[in-house]
Amino acid sequence: MTYKKMDKKLDDDFWKTKNLSLTIGEVSVGKPKQELDEPMGPTPKPSVTDLRSWDFKLLKRYPPFYAPFCDMCCLCTYGKCDLLGKKGACGIDAEAQQARTVLLASCIGTAAHAGHGRHMLHHVIKEKGKDFPIDMGKNIDIEAPIIRTIIGKKPVTVSDLDESLSYVEEQLSHLLSACHTGQEGNSLDFESKALHAGMMDDLAREVADITQIVAYDMPRGDGDEPLVELGLGTVDKDKPVVLCIGHNVAPGAEILDYVEDNDLYEDVEICGICCTAIDITRYNQAAKVIGPLSKQMKFIRSGVSDVIVVDEQCVRTDVLEEAKKNGAVVIATTDKMCLGLLDMTKEDPELIINELVNGNIDGALILEPKKVGKVAVEVAKKIAKRRESLKCLPDISEIPEIAKECTECGWCVRVCPNNRPIMDAVTAAAKGDLTKLANLYEHDMCYTCGRCEEECERNLPLVSFITKAGDHFVKNQKFKMRAGRGPVQDVEIRKVGGPIVLGDIPGVVAFVGCSNFPNGGIEIAKMAEELLKRRYIVVATGCSAMSIGEYIDEDGLTLYEKYEGIFDASGLANIGSCVSNAHISGACIKIANIFAKKPLSGNFEEVADYILNRVGACGVAWGAFSQKAAAIAAGVNRWGIPAVLGPHSSKYRRLYLGRIDKEEMWDLNDLRTGETVKGEPAPEHLLYAAETMEEALVSTVKMCIRPNDTPKGRQLKLSNYIDLYKKYFGELPSDLELFVRNERDIPITHKKEVMDDLTSKNWTPREAPKEPSLLERK
């Protein structure tokens, strides 16, 4: 039907009426379209089962390996049920129960990021309006690669992000319902659902970070972001100090705004721990980064913080109890963590300030970020002086006398997650030698979980011992960390996409996750340094990005000072906080789109298949501990990106391990010829837990090998693999015959010894597939 345009003047006698009431609804003037200029793929907004066939391809190649904590299921009132060689009362077996636990963990992690994103989105729409534009800068055209691929649309305003987040929340309901007793009963289907939860996590993180980038004008992928101050020694202890802990930037941003609006930069220190620290410095470089989550107990007990503002995720749940020991005030700012505090959100700020300053309440729950800004700063200013005499750490001279009470029962060592020599350090301290305590402090060798204190039969303040000794011997630790840059720019992908896919750049390695390191944060920095020297692209986020910054090399520089923050060979890019991990997956997706011209809209399988077989990327979560980390890993795994975990991560109960002894598992389809061809274990595993830093580094390099490597690229990757293996293990790798397709793949510097090794194993050359894929030819 067509309509003929008829112009009318209001004074024309063309319409007569009485008591006319007009209501103007939403008016859109020239709003850019969300639809993309490419055909829609087969799976926009995929349901729980739409990508099940892709998941099963991955799970056939990388079958789950389970490592249960125990053989019992205690989920319902039928139990508890012993599943060792038996079924439970509901019919579930041990494998399915472990897979259900993995799904639960992934759902919890995804819910944390989705809840964070929902908080952020509501706050930004309230403050800036639902039509606030999404502007990712002139060098980014593909502003939301995950949203484009999964949802099939281009977000134009912040309100457009609501559709993606609502979809995540809908899928979470379905996934969590599958965990109910009497629902899913197959381990592989639980695993497929866990991978779906991980993909939802990726989507939620992209929504959250894009929201905060555009709302708070954070960096948009610039490689030359400024260096920010990092370390316990960066804070001026003579000033009032506000400490922000968690992941939600909104309260911290309002605190910094209040400081700026009232010209208080010289009067108050604002600092942060965990991802909030990264994000407040992305917003305003005047803030200081104390460090990763392993710094929490140390810094709180040091008494430096006058006000502690907590938001959500990875905050010690006893933060209020610890703060009360030295008179610090706690302000909780989200519904995720209320801590039993009185809700003062609707009260006048002056009343809240007076109540806190006078000690009438231990802390306050304030759910309005702008109000938090004023209250936190003003309370810190008013109580800082009186807190100077308050302390919960012993004097350095008191430690030897208190340490003499140790009975040397050894339980502190037994319960320590890393079996640290705590008892030896305490007995040495009793004799006046505090250096062993200080050694536990440096590089977070002890990450102050406090389990030793809980177990000590003499109630010795062991964490306080370590904190005080470390503060005494390792004073004024100051480092530099590059501010989080956000997404990888399209222009960078155009430059490096080809070299990555062809193997000329040996790989992209992402150091992500928490600080539950087996031997302190120095290991992750040393791994990053080794890879940077070998021209890998190294990216980092969250606690890992902070730990990398706490290492100073032989030139007296941090790695951030020594290497540029670009996404290129030998570049060290701090991408940002936990939610910024989405940009790492996003970079791989952009390679498929920009370099290989793969359409994104609703085209998950083809994009993921391309990444698995052609993009040499690997994640390293050396200190992963949380459910969020589990969800992040599941997300990148579904995209075809492998991850290497630390030894503690076996406690996640499940790994995805390939079997090099089963050649049929590695068969590939050559889409150019239509033939099924012999493949190789590239990558060998999808999710692998290494025992040592050396094993992790060698495994990471090996897992950047891809079937699509050119001979030159394969030479480079094998050269790094052989060099590192010989450096740490003193011999050639035992599996080279699996990765040498023909003599052109062999590094020139190792040719003789490699050929001798191959000859002894009756190796025969083979042709590399032209277009490797797990999918069928269309």
Automatic annotation (TrEMBL):
[Ni-4Fe-4S] cluster binds at H247, C275, C314, C514, C543, C578. Its cofactor is [Ni-4Fe-4S] cluster; [4Fe-4S] cluster. Residues 767-778 have a biased composition (Basic and acidic residues). Pfam families: Prismane. GO terms for biological process: acetyl-CoA metabolic process; response to hydrogen peroxide. Binds 2 [Ni-4Fe-4S] clusters per heterotetramer. Binds 7 [4Fe-4S] clusters per heterotetramer. [4Fe-4S] cluster 3 binds at C406, C409, C412, C456. CO binds at H113. Signal peptide: none annotated. [4Fe-4S] cluster 4 binds at C416, C446, C449, C452. [4Fe-4S] cluster 1 binds at C70, C74. It catalyses: CO + 2 oxidized [2Fe-2S]-[ferredoxin] + H2O = 2 reduced [2Fe-2S]-[ferredoxin] + CO2 + 2 H(+). PANTHER family: ACETYL-COA DECARBONYLASE_SYNTHASE COMPLEX SUBUNIT ALPHA, HYDROXYLAMINE REDUCTASE. Cluster B is an all-cysteinyl-liganded 4Fe-4S cluster; cluster C is a mixed Ni-Fe-S cluster which is the active site of CO oxidation. Cluster D is also an all-cysteinyl-liganded 4Fe-4S cluster that bridges the two subunits of the CODH dimer. Contains two additional 4Fe-4S clusters, dubbed E and F, that probably transport electrons from ferredoxin to the B cluster. Heterotetramer of two alpha and two epsilon subunits. The ACDS complex is made up of alpha, epsilon, beta, gamma and delta subunits with a probable stoichiometry of (alpha(2)epsilon(2))(4)-beta(8)-(gamma(1)delta(1))(8). This is Acetyl-CoA decarbonylase/synthase complex subunit alpha. The gene is cdhA.
